[in-house]
Structure formats: structure tokens, C-alpha cells
Amino acid sequence: MRTSVIVFMGALILATPSLAQQMPELEAAPEAATVSPASDAVLAAAADQGGDFYCRRRLGTWFYCDKPKRAPRSPQSAPTPSQSANDRIKAIAAELDELKARAVLEPTTENVTAYIAFQRAQLDRASTFADVWQRAIWQNPALDYTLQRPVSTVAKRAWIDNRSADRSAVLQRIGQRYGVFYFYAQSCAACEIQAPILKSVADINGLHVQAVSMDGGPNRVFPNYFVDSGQSARMGLTSRATPSLVLFDTLTKRPIPIGTGLMAADEIMDRIFTLTNVKPGSDF
């Protein structure tokens, strides 16, 4: 019996690893139990990925199943929207009005000084804008309207001379296509002055003039007249005021009112030239 026990114990000892062989595992256990610290963000991400991630640990690593709490995030303030230029202009105007009202209602030295200083700052801003505007026009001919309609004395004189030459060239052949209806009244004093002026313009430029009497009376300058029987309305005149001139395009059969009231010869020719040969908007 004793011999059997001794043999059994010897076999057990041979089957069991030696203590020296077991020492590396015993020494490694504390290292396995020691876990390097991880950042809160990593732990929180791991907690989000698995519900019981920390409950499936090997014994000796973690002895709890509580998930690490996510670090509270500091509240981020909403970005302030940038103020538009239009809003800034409105704010400046409102501030100026407020300072002015305060200076008027409470005219202390401080209030009046604050209003004057703020107003001067805005005047300086406007002066800078005007200066940059002028420089930009000088450096960009396409933006310079004075090249189209000069304002300086020398350039304006040259522009007027060229315009007169163009007008004369156009009016010399205007009679080939256009005629003038002259609406007058025998009782109209201005018509007595307008008739000879219109005749001189017609003679110089070869225009045919047809006089139309609004009251049935004759005309000594244009004896070949006829009495109005609706012609004025068909020519686009909205009233029976006299004297009135209407240019008639024989090519398109379209009436073009020139104007009503007493006009000088130069004005009549300039209006005819503008209405027939100048594109709307190009002179302004």
C-alpha cells in the first residue's frame, strides 16, 4: 500500500511542471494585470462599440463590469454670423441719429463732442470713398462717362462741334424720309412766332411741313393748311395745346411727337436729330 502511494506521488511529480518552469508565468501575471492607461476618448469609443466590452475581460485584468463614463464635453458657443455691409451701414446711420438726438435733447459738452466726432469720422469715410471712386474711373476708361459726354470746357466744346456736324449731316437728308405736322391755332400768339421759325428750319433742311389748324383759322406762313378732324389724336397728341410739332416717318408710317410749346430753331433740329438718330440712353 505504502509502495503504491510512493509510486503514485512520483508519477504525479513527473507529470507536473517544475517550479522553475512555472516561475515565468507567475512573474508575467502581474504584468498582465497591469494595464497601460488609455485616453478617455479611446475608452469611450470602445464603450460605444460594445455594450458589455468591459465585462468580457480575463480574470486578473479587470474585476468590474462598469463602463467608463464619457468625459463631459465643454459646451461650444454658436458661431456669430458675420454682419453684412448693409447692416453695418444701417448701424452707423442709427448710431449717428442717436448721437444727434442725444446732443439736441441733452446738449452737454460730452454729448455734442461725441456727435461731432462720430459725424466727422463718417465724413472722412465718405471722402475716402469719393477719392477712390475718382481714381477708379481715371484708371478704367470704360467707366468714365465724361469720355462719352465731356464736362471740361475744352472737351465739351469739341464734343458740341462734333455733335453739330453730325446733326447737320443727318438733317440734310432728313426730308427724304420724314415730314412735319404743325398744329396751330389762329388765336395762339406763340403760334405766330413759331411759324416763321419752323419755316426756316424746313427750308434749310428740305423738310415738308403740313400745317393743321386746331380752330379753323388760316395761317399766313403756311397758307396750304387744313382743319383738324382727328389728325392730332392719330398723331399721338394727348391735348389740343398749340403750337405742337409731330415728325412723321413715311417709311414706317409712324408719328413721332417732337414737342409742344414755343421752340427755337436749334432746339427743333436737335430734337429731330435725337429722335431719329440717337439711341435712347446714350446721351445720359
Q: What would you say about this model in short?
A:
With 284 residues, the chain is an alpha/beta fold. It is built from nine helices and five strands, in the order ααααααβαββαββα.
List descriptors.
alpha/beta, disordered N terminus, 284 residues, 10% strand
Description:
It is a single chain. With 284 residues, the protein is of the alpha/beta class. The chain is built from 9 helices and 5 strands. It has helices spanning 2-15, 19-33, 40-49, 85-105, 109-139, 153-171, 189-205, 231-234, 265-277; strands spanning 178-184, 208-213, 226-227, 244-249, 254-260. The chain has a 5-stranded mixed beta sheet. Strand 4 (244-249) and strand 5 (254-260) form a beta hairpin. It is elongated.
Number of strands: 5
Instruction: Output the helix-strand order.
Output: HHHHHHEHEEHEEH
Tell me, what's the shape? elongated
Average pLDDT figure: 80
Computed structural class: alpha/beta
Radius of gyration: 51 Å
DSSP strand (E) fraction?
A: 5-15%
Strand order of the largest sheet: 3-2-1-4-5
Approximately how much helix is present in the residues?
Answer: 40-55%
CA-to-CA gap between the ends? Answer: 134 Å
The number of helical elements comes to 9
- Flag low-confidence runs: 1-38
Largest sheet: 5 strands, mixed
How is this fold's topology laid out?
Elements: H1 2-15, H2 19-33, H3 40-49, H4 85-105, H5 109-139, H6 153-171, E1 178-184, H7 189-205, E2 208-213, E3 226-227, H8 231-234, E4 244-249, E5 254-260, H9 265-277
Parallel strand pairs: 1-2, 2-3
Antiparallel strand pairs: 1-4, 4-5
Helix pairs in contact: 4-5
